[in-house]
Every structure is written in structure tokens, then in C-alpha cells.
């Protein structure tokens, strides 16, 4: 089993490092993006530390398969597993919820051109900046946890509709700064559940 897991882990680290290097080079020499969608690489960026903590938990599964002999081994295994899942599980739940909300959403955002458009699938969500009654910006209160990068913007329109944009699309701070004159309410929470 070890002969299989070690090369797979090394391959995953090499592919991840190569992809981050490629993204850095593309950002350095490429054009600034104005169209944002949920992408695999944005998901990897947000889930890097939760998945790393789960990889740390993988060696703990071996004693479970062999079967701990003493009750203190069961207790130690349970405490370690609960700690690791406590770090990773909230991020995974937020990622799943945000992905369900924005998997078909496309955000067209260019502050220099004063453009903000949202599409659900191929259909545009019709609104203009004056149509926005208020903007709710959900941020994580604790900055040192794995799920602190999961944020959302909820645009409340005058006709009662709500447009929800999550951090799976892009970093939301520039968009919140763009919408700062439309009664922006920042809500700090421990867990930014929609």
C-alpha cells in the first residue's frame, strides 16, 4: 500500500507546484481577468490546507484497519481524528455550499470600465448599479482558520431579488470596494454560511 501512496502523493505535490508556478507566470505576463467562473484551480487554492490536513489524517487510518488494542489507543485515535476533521470539515462544507450556489454563475467585472454583470448559465441577471438596494458582505471573523477565505456578497435588489456571489468565483474584496457606495453592510461571522 505504501508503494502506491508515496508515488501518488509525490505526483500530486509535483502537479500542484507546477500548476501554481504556471498560474503565477500567467498572472505576471497575462492580461488582468475580467470574467470569473468557478474553476478547478480556484477550488484547489481554497481547499489546499483542508486537503493537506486530511492527508495528515490518512496515516491514522492504518491503526483503525489493524484495530487498536487498548482503549487509550481508541481514545487517542478519536481525539486526533476529531481535531483534524474539525479543521477540514467546515471548509469542505462551505466549499460544497458555495459550489452549489455559483457553479453556473459567471461574473463579468471590470472596475476600470465600470462593468458589473452577472450571468446564470447563458442568461444574464438583469440589473444596474442603481437597482441595488443594499449589499451584504459576509466575512470570516477568525483569520487563522482554514475557512477564513470563504466569503460572500449578497446583492439585495429593489425588486426583491437577491444575487449571491461567493469567493469561489474570485477574491471579493475588489468587488466590495467597487460597491462601497451602495449601502455596503459588512457582517463578520465565525462561519460564513449562506
Automatic annotation (TrEMBL):
TM region(s), chain numbering: 6-26, 46-62, 74-94
Top-level taxonomic group: Bacteria
Annotated PH domain residues: 35-177
Pfam families, sorted: PH_40
InterPro entries for this protein: PH_40
Coiled coil: none
The entry's keywords: Membrane, Transmembrane, Transmembrane helix
Entry protein name: PH domain-containing protein
Taxonomic source organism: Hymenobacter gummosus
Amino acid at each position: 500500500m505504501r508503494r502506491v501512496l508515496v508515488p501518488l502523493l509525490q505526483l500530486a505535490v509535483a502537479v500542484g507546484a507546477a500548476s501554481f508556478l504556471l498560474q503565477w507566470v500567467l498572472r505576471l505576463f497575462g492580461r488582468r481577468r475580467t470574467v470569473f467562473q468557478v474553476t478547478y484551480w480556484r477550488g484547489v487554492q481554497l481547499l489546499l490546507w483542508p486537503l493537506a490536513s486530511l492527508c495528515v489524517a490518512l496515516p491514522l487510518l492504518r491503526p483503525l484497519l489493524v484495530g487498536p488494542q487498548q482503549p487509550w489507543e481508541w481514545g487517542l485515535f478519536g481525539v486526533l481524528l476529531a481535531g483534524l476533521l474539525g479543521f477540514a470539515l467546515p471548509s469542505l462544507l462551505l466549499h460544497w455550499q458555495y459550489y452549489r450556489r455559483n457553479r453556473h454563475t459567471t461574473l463579468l467585472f471590470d472596475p476600470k470600465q465600470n462593468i458589473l454583470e452577472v450571468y446564470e448559465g447563458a442568461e444574464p441577471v438583469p440589473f444596474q448599479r442603481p437597482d441595488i438596494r443594499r449589499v451584504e458582505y459576509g466575512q470570516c471573523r477568525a483569520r487563522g482558520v482554514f475557512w477564513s477565505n470563504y466569503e460572500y456578497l449578497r446583492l439585495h435588489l429593489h425588486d426583491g431579488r437577491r444575487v449571491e456571489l461567493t469567493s469561489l468565483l474570485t477574491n471579493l474584496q475588489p468587488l466590495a470596494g467597487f460597491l462601497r457606495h451602495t449601502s455596503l453592510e459588512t457582517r463578520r461571522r465565525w462561519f460564513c454560511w449562506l
